[in-house]
Design a protein that fits this description.
homodimer; alpha/beta; 3 domains; six-stranded mixed sheet; 15 helices
């Protein structure tokens, strides 16, 4: 494995009358002995070489980017052990709603601690992607969005670095994984044409930049890789998910559903990959459902309804619950239906339990004193699950296969870390296939970014995956709408599609 | 010839439902059709692509650096003619005393006008190189020197651009030619070890940087090549001179003398090159001789003494003379000796003419009302010429040849543009060889920088020259000193060495 950046401890001979090799060339010769042919060196690094050599007896630690050609990106007076000898990388899942970062020790391949996330501050400027793209029409609007995203990553990186006992300036590389529009915002690229016919991004392959050129406050010359995208709708976050799933290496056909703020669906194997996208996510990320929230401390992540219709649940961080994240919403909808508290249309059946109370927003199931699940919430959630199931149905039928042909079904996205696949099947969101075929990938956008930090071949693989993908526009035709209407029932108007939903 | 930067007019097809190629990839495909495989593109350029494409119907002008791998360094809405279609490069002779720049139209290969020069503002901080190196020991001292040099180049570039009807931001590349220490100052590299044993520069090969990274206010992503040096004493300016002379391509042996603030001597041919350096210059650049000045408007550049001991001279810029540049100083010394106004020791012979007057600084020849050439000036100049001749004698004797073996004798340096070789021979500064063997190269440092802008192969050639050079420390031994003392006479203590000096 070749990480994006590596540190080399170099014991060099001292300059003398017999060896007048200049300082830079002396270091480059040392690197050549390590098998590295570093080309041009940034001037900011050449400036540090003379004192680095003489501060510690011509022993230096060279930080080398292996992103493209080997490049010397920093040099320090040497020490062969301890923090200074370790290279750190920052993995970034640049989500529309949340920005999640992980700090990786590139020597061991392990994170220095838990990932740290924060709400994407762009949300204040525009709640959804379209509002933000619109905001770019204003003078300075794009720059405002860029600075919001970059500033948030910098703040999170600083927190991660502090926890690891280093400074953000000690981080030597970063990989950014996000959807097409988020990548554009991060780099300050005009997103105008992403959402207007013929839907052309400014770029699919961004390549590698310097931290200083994109505004990241890590090591100035650190390589920052922004994962590529495939057109307007399949972003680097999805490609990361495909990489993490390994589906593009398999003979059997897999489906991958990446549920973030939008839902992307990928079907394929090592020979072909088809992608489509649909609006599905907001109800699951906390934006639409009244008591919904993102998977963060205080979020109920798992919930069941007991004999007396009382809920029992677990809360992230073991604190007083303040809302429910996507997995709990799916659990609850499933449980309300299983226990007969709601009917197939998602309406509360009157007089079944005292947990269902009348609120300002109509009838609602009381989860806790401050948390209610209303009929309107249910409606939103049913719309989301219907859109998802319809998209899945349409795409596999367009490809000419059935759900029985699927070998593995991957669920990705932050919320995919917590989801109970059987519950998602029971509400008719995911197809009724053998439960062992489901694999929860968790935040595969972040995991893919970590893989890219740890091995430059991962980036090549992502680029190969990108080149394999065919994008299908999901037909918003009458057929799609009639399928969608049929899926607006729990689990489905055609119950024969879900024979196993409630067997247990 | 492959210039450092080239502009390409690209007529691209419009994005459509049938061709959703992203903007960046569309431009890169256009460049591939021109035979250019541009790798990674700077983010600042990707940011401009979308609007550049749509501002003029998908016709763009791409500015491509050919310095290393082809790199897209700018993009503008296209126009196939006029100023916007022309690439400009800045050639810089970064001298210790003067900074001279020329703006080159890279399409025609011609300068847009006369070179523009200015006094190196570092002179205010430290008159000579050693004082400046010493200044770097102060906190912020190096940065002060760097900013002085870069600021001066920026100011001169702006003047050149204004004269050419463009802005400095339209300049797409630059080449900097200077001695080792000046290159270090320009890049902000610690010069401390250049002048202290074992005399090791921070770097010999600097490579190519971005304008924005070295502070040049030309196109931000423009490549800036800093010519390499060979150790502490042979700088890029000398290598440029060797390139311009062509001596490293010839079978016969040549000598090149580069007289700037120091004098460097190169002897060799296509198989070997030996270099040495000596302090020689100041007296010829205006720093030491009381009436001396650099070759600028107001400087007498040529002077003869007539029958009645009156001078006749030409003045640069045809204005009232204010001083004499190096070539005039040599002329005058030669003429004073030829006419018998001074003796072989450089002393005025009393009572020969009324032009020799008594001044505060002792006896002096009155060139004009405000310009006097004193005995002390003569002494300084004789020291310079003696040092030069001694260095030449020592180096060829160490190599084991004689002046008769020399096929061509090149004189480089600003002052070399104006010097009369026969006069330099007559005072015993240059050896008495057939006069047709002398070739005046003028400012070959600047000319070499121009060659590097116009053809990247020139940079390869300079690097090849650099690798061929052996540096010889001129022996400051008793032998050197006795040869030096013998050369402190006009033309020489051993007159047989200059049989042709006054034949005519």
């Amino acid at each position: 494995m070749t990480p994006l950046v590596k540190k080399y401890f170099l014991k060099l001979s001292q300059a003398s009358d017999d060896d007048k090799t200049p300082d830079l060339e002396r270091v480059l010769a040392g690197l050549r002995r390590e098998g590295l042919d570093a080309g041009s060196v940034p001037v900011s690094v050449i400036r540090k070489i003379s004192s680095a050599l003489r501060d510690n007896n011509f022993e230096v630690t060279a930080t080398v980017s292996l992103s493209e050609e080997p490049e010397l990106i920093d040099i320090e007076p040497g020490s062969s052990a301890g923090r200074r000898s370790t290279a750190f990388g920052l993995a970034v899942d640049l989500g529309t709603t949340n920005i999640v970062c992980s700090l990786i020790d590139l020597d061991t391949g392990s994170p220095t601690g838990m990932p740290v996330s924060d709400t994407n501050p762009q949300s204040v400027i525009g709640e959804d992607i379209l509002a933000r793209i619109h905001h770019c029409l204003k003078t300075g609007g794009l720059e405002e969005l860029r600075l919001a995203a970059v500033g948030c990553v910098n703040a999170v990186a600083e927190r991660l670095a502090a926890s690891a006992g280093i400074s953000a300036g000690d981080i030597s590389c970063a990989c950014i994984s996000g959807n097409t529009t988020m990548a554009h915002f991060f780099l300050g690229l005009d997103p105008y044409n992403i959402c207007r016919a013929p839907y052309v991004p400014a770029a699919n392959r961004f390549g590698s930049f310097k931290a200083k050129d994109v505004g990241l406050n890590i090591r100035p010359e650190a390589p920052v890789v922004v994962l590529p995208n495939v057109g307007s709708y399949v972003g680097g976050d999805v490609l990361a998910g495909i990489l993490v799933s390994g589906m593009a290496d398999r003979e059997g056909i897999s489906i991958l559903v990446d549920v973030g703020t939008n839902a992307e669906i990928i079907v394929g194997n090592r020979d072909w990959l088809v992608a489509c996208a649909g609006a599905a996510g907001p109800a699951l990320e906390g934006g639409v459902v009244s008591s919904g929230m993102r998977a963060a401390p205080g979020a109920i992540d798992r919930i069941t309804i007991g004999d007396k219709h009382d809920p029992s649940f677990s809360v992230i961080g073991d604190v007083t619950p303040v809302g429910m994240c996507g997995s709990a919403l799916i659990d609850l909808l499933s449980e309300l239906f299983r226990t007969g508290l709601i009917d197939g249309r998602g309406k509360f059946v009157p007089g079944r339990t005292e947990r269902v109370v009348e609120t300002e927003s109509g009838p609602a199931y009381r989860v806790a004193d401050n948390i209610f699940f209303t009929e309107r919430d249910i409606e939103n959630l049913v719309r989301t699950k219907a859109a998802m199931y319809t998209a899945l149905t349409v795409i596999i039928s367009e490809i000419g296969i059935t759900f029985n042909d699927i070998e593995s079904f991957f669920v990705a996205g932050t919320f995919g870390e917590y989801i109970a696949a059987d519950k998602a099947v029971s509400i008719g969101m995911l197809p009724d296939i053998p439960i062992e075929k489901f694999r929860l990938l968790g935040n595969s956008s972040l995991k893919g970014a970590v893989m890219a930090l740890l091995d430059i071949k991962a980036i090549e693989q992502i680029e190969k995956i990108a080149s394999m993908i065919t994008y299908r526009e999901l037909n918003a035709s009458a057929e799609f709408m009639s399928l969608y209407r049929a899926a607006m029932f729990l689990p489905h108007t055609d119950a024969s599609l879900f024979p196993n939903a409630y067997k247990s």
